[in-house]
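User: I'm new to structure prediction. If I give you an amino acid sequence, what do you actually give back? Let's try with this one:
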Amino acid sequence: GPAEDLTPLYAAAAAGHDNVVRVLLKARVDPNTPIGDGPFTGITALYAAAHMGHYNVVRVLLKARVDPNTP
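Assistant: Good question. You get back a string of structure tokens that encode the predicted 3D arrangement of the chain. For your 71 residues, that looks like this:
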């Protein structure tokens, strides 16, 4: 199903879990990796956080130098 296609970073960002996002970034998860399969193909964690209104996560991702131009 669609939930199985999500990365942990995407799921944490979309749910607004900024502390989980920080842990994943410290573990060197690539924040610019888009979703690869399913209905969310090509969407990034930054897009998900912004779309869901989780601006605390948006700030964390931008501070980690995520590329805002990644589709």
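You can read the tokens as a compact description of the fold. Here is one thing that stands out. The first helix runs from residue 8 to 15.
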